[in-house]
Amino acid sequence: MNQPISISKEVIKTQFNPNQYPLIYNYEAEINFSDLDIFTKGPPYEHFEKMRKLAPIYFHPAFLDDVEPGFWSLTRYKDIIKVSSDPKTFSSQIGTGTLMTLGSEERRHPKLWPSSIDHMLNLDGDLHINLRREHMPFFKPDYIADLRTKVQTKVTSLLDAMETKKEFNFVHEFSQQLPIFTLSEILGIPNEDRPKLVTWMEFLELAQYMQIEQLKLRANKTPNTDMINMFNNMVDEMFEYGRDILNSKRKNPSNDLLSAIANAELEGQKLSPEFLDGSWLLIIFAGNDTTRNTLSGAIKLLTENPDQKEKLLKNKDLMPNFLQECIRMVSPVMHMRRTSTCETQIGEQRIGKGEKIIMW
Predict the structure, then answer these.
(1) Where does residue 99 rank: exposed (0-12), middle (13-18), buried (19+ CB within 10 A)?
(2) CA-wise closest residue to 246 among 234, 261, 266, 225
(3) Which of 77, 133, 186, 240 is deepest in the core (most CB within 10 A)?
(4) Euclidean distance between CA atoms 349 and 335, whole angstroms
(5) Is the pLDDT of residue 1 over 50?
(6) In angstroms, rounded to a whole number, what is the distance separating the alpha carbons of residues 165 and 163?
(7) Whole-angstrom Cα distance, residue 27 to residue 294?
(8) Pfam families, per this entry (predicted)?
(9) What is the maximum span of the chain, computed from C-alpha positions, in angstroms?
(10) Phi, psi (degrees; rounded to nearest 5) at 99
(11) Angle between helices 287-304 and 177-187 (to 10 degrees)
(12) How far apart are CA 37 and CA 351, in angstroms?
C-alpha cells in the first residue's frame, strides 16, 4: 500500500534553478519585492505598475541570504492566467503554491513549516480536484441558506454594538469577529472555544517576526525569549486542539466541515497526520486572514476615496462590483507561486526547468 502523501517531505528534494535563458527585459526593480517590510504600509502599487510596464516578466534576484535562487515575477494578467491554468507545466506540488521560498533548514519552524505545505493548495491536478471534491457535498443549498441567515444576524449584532460608540476599532470589533464566527459555524467549533481562535490568529500573524527572533537566538544575539516561548506555546496549543478535534470527528463524524476533512481520502487513504495539521492551519488561518484583511481594506479604501463611497451609498447596485474591486485592490493574498516542470515559455520569455515563478 502506498504511503500517505506528505508534500513537505518531497518538496525539499526539488532542485530550484536560476534563470537558464537570456532575459528579454533589461530592467532592475527599485525595491526588493521579497522584503516583507516593503508591504507593511500596503501594496507598492506604483512599483508594480512600473514593473508591469517595463518588465512584465522580470527575473527577481534572491533576497539577501536566501538559499534558493531568485524567481520570475509576473504582473501581466494574461501571463498569470496562463501559468495558473496549467498545473502540468507550472506545479504547486513540487515547490509549493504559496511560499516564495522554502528557506534554510534552520529557519523552518518544526510545526508551522510542514503544515504550511501539507495541504490542498499545494496539490496538483487530480489530487487537488479529488480532495476538493471530498469537501463539496458538505456545502448543500439548504446548509448555505441557513449559514447565510446566521451570518446576517451576526453582522447586524456587530453593527448594532458599534453604533452605540463614538469611536471604535473596526478591525477588532468587526473584521476580526465576523470571519471567526463564520468559520466556527462551518467547522463546528464549540462556542466556548471560539475565543481561542482569535488569540491563535493574532500569534500566527507574528510568525515572520518570530522567525527572525529565533535566528537571533541561534546566532547568540539578544532575542525576545519570552515572546519566542509564548509564541511556541500558542502554536503547540493550536495544533493540539486541531488534532484532538479532527481525531474526534474521524471517530464520530457530524454534519460539519471538520468531519468532512477528517474523513477525506487521498488515493484511497485517510489523510496523514501531517496533512491533517496542514488542513487545520489552512482553514483557521487562511480562511480567517483573507476575509479579515479584505473587510478592513475595503473600509480603508472607502475612507481614502470618499467620492467612491458616496457613489456606493447612492447606488447599492454597485455593491457586487465594489466587492470584486476590493478583493483585487486589497489583495489579501499578495502572491502565489509555481515551479516549472519542464522547459517552456511565458510570453516572450523562455523559462527553464525548475525555475520559480511568482504571480502577483
Answers:
(1) middle
(2) 261
(3) 186
(4) 20
(5) no
(6) 6
(7) 32
(8) p450 (PF00067)
(9) 63
(10) -80, 130
(11) 150
(12) 29
Class of domain 1-100+335-360: alpha beta
pLDDT at 25 exceeding the cut of 90:
yes
Residue 127 has which C-alpha cell? Answer: 489530487
Residues 75/357, Cβ–Cβ less than 8 Å: no
Banded pLDDT at 216 (limits 50, 70, 90): low
CB contact burial 136-162 (16+ within 10 A = b; e otherwise):
eeeeeeeeeeeeeeeeeeeeeebeeee
Q: What is the DSSP letter of 13?
A: T
Q: How many residues does the chain have?
A: 360
Does the CA dihedral 210-214-219-224 come out positive or negative? positive
Cell, residue 117? 505545505
Domain range summary for the chain, segments of one domain joined by + = 1-100+335-360, 109-333
Q: How many CB atoms lie within 10 A of CB 169?
A: 11
How far apart are the C-alpha atoms of 155 and 177, rounded to whole Å?
A: 9
Per-residue confidence (pLDDT) for residue 8, from 0 to 100: 93
**End-to-end alpha carbon distance in the chain:** 40
**Cell numbers 480603508 correspond to what residue?**
300
Domain with residues 109-333, CATH architecture: Orthogonal Bundle (1.10)
User: What residue type is assigned to position 319 of the chain?
Assistant: M
Q: pTM of the prediction?
A: 0.89
